[in-house]
């Protein structure tokens, strides 16, 4: 039987900030954007104290301020969070090399071949992480990734939850469908329109109804996921298909020079990342989002893969010139795809 662990750090960004600034412990802390709630940006992470006011990731910083004006707003410090994340991932690799890194603050471990009870392994991991970083984590244990991820969210923060194969009906069917990995707000709304609110209600639907509503691939996924079925392996290594960068202006602009400068800076950043990772790319895509949120893209495919800043920047500006900037610009973005190892 497979034994999968899902390790999820508790309110990671804000926990790191509270660790290095102890005076923030116990206070509502919001990390996002530049840390200024009066400027554009979204919440990356909110402390559990801030979540009591309805603040959660992805909402605008302005909205978070309205919900809790006395919250402490901090800018995102990816360099520090990445440093702590690498320390945590290093601890995990001491237990097994079968790891799927799914984000800066979470990972899956396959401990099936380790001759120890999985809960004992999980307890040791939690102690090591807390002892070496001062942070807490929540761990879910289950026969597959889907259930392990559900389990890690059940007793946050600092939780340890086990879901066994014969407990699916009693443990997950009462949960809202949004808890299922891969179910977003659009699917949730669609299901609600069908009268489906819980995972158990979703599991009651026949496969042909789900494929009719959501297509064969996603319909099959929902059918299996609602029954706790997930045979997907841990992906221990992957190659990116593309790299992208984008930025939102603090104020919408109709200045071509400002837009062009932004594209140039994003191009320089992405080429630096490509060279650092030993990749070359073939297709350059520029994205422009206007003040009314209308979004347009233009792409150019090069004759051969390259990591040349001059060549990629030239292609990006050719794409930009093919876009009519008749309205104020809210966001610019660039993506380089068709990546190959140098």
How would you explain this protein's 3D organization?
The protein is of the alpha+beta class and 342 residues long. It folds into three domains: 1-163, 2-Layer Sandwich (Alpha-Beta Plaits); 173-225, DNA polymerase, domain 1 (Orthogonal Bundle), CATH 1.10.150.20; 242-341, DNA polymerase, Y-family, little finger domain (Dna Ligase, domain 1, 2-Layer Sandwich). Helix content is 38%, strand content 23%. It is built from 13 helices and 13 strands. The protein has a five-stranded mixed β-sheet. Strands 9, 10, 11, 12 and 13 form a five-stranded antiparallel β-sheet that branches. Helix 10 crosses helix 11 (216-225). The longest helix is centred in the last third of the chain and has 21 residues, at 256-276. The two termini are 40 Å apart.
Number of helices: 13
Give the CATH H-level superfamily of the largest domain.
Answer: Reverse transcriptase/Diguanylate cyclase domain
Protein structure class: alpha+beta
Placed side by side, the strands forming the largest sheet appear as 5-6-1-7-8
CATH structural fold name of the largest domain: Alpha-Beta Plaits
Tally of DSSP β-strands: 13
Question: What integer value in Å does the Rg equal?
Answer: 23 Å
CATH class of the largest domain: Alpha Beta
Descriptive tags:
DNA polymerase, domain 1; Dna Ligase, domain 1; 3 domains; five-stranded mixed β-sheet; 13 helices
Write the layout of secondary structure elements.
Blueprint: E1 4-9, H1 12-20, E2 29-31, E3 45-46, H2 48-51, H3 61-67, E4 72-74, H4 78-93, E5 99-103, E6 106-110, H5 118-133, E7 137-142, H6 145-152, E8 160-162, H7 168-172, H8 185-193, H9 199-203, H10 207-214, H11 216-225, E9 242-253, H12 256-276, E10 279-290, E11 295-306, H13 309-321, E12 329-337, E13 340-341
């Amino acid at each position: 039987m497979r034994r999968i662990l899902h390790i999820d750090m508790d309110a990671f960004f804000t926990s790191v900030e509270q660790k290095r600034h102890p005076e923030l412990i116990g206070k509502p802390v919001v990390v996002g954007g530049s840390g200024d709630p009066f400027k554009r940006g979204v919440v990356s992470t909110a402390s559990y104290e801030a979540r009591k006011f309805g603040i959660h990731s992805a909402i605008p910083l302005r909205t978070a301020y309205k919900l809790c004006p006395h919250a402490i707003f901090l800018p995102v410090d990816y360099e520090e969070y990445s440093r702590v994340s690498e320390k945590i991932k290093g601890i995990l690799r001491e237990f097994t090399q079968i790891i799927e890194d799914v984000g800066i603050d979470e990972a899956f471990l396959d401990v099936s071949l380790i001759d120890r009870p999985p809960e004992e392994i999980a307890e040791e991991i939690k102690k090591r992480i807390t002892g070496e970083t001062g942070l807490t984590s929540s761990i879910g244990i289950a026969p597959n990734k889907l259930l392990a991820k559900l389990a890690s969210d059940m007793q946050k923060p600092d939780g340890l939850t086990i879901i066994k194969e014969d407990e699916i009906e009693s443990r997950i069917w009462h949960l809202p469908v949004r808890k299922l990995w891969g179910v977003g707000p659009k699917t949730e709304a669609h299901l609600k329109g069908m009268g489906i609110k819980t995972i158990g209600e979703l599991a009651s639907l026949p496969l042909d109804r789900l494929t009719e509503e959501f297509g064969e691939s996603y319909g099959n996924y929902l059918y299996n996921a609602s029954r706790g079925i997930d045979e997907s392996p841990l992906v221990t290594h992957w190659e990116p298909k593309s790299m992208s960068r984008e930025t939102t202006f603090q104020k919408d602009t109709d200045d071509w020079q400002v837009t062009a400068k932004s594209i140039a800076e994003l191009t320089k950043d992405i080429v630096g990342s490509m060279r650092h990772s030993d990749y070359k790319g073939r297709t350059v895509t520029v994205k422009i989002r206007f003040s009314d949120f209308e979004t347009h893209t233009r792409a150019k495919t090069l004759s051969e893969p390259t990591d040349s800043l001059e060549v990629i920047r030239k292609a990006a500006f050719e794409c930009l010139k093919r876009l009519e900037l008749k309205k104020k610009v809210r966001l610019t973005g660039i993506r380089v795809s068709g990546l190959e190892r140098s």
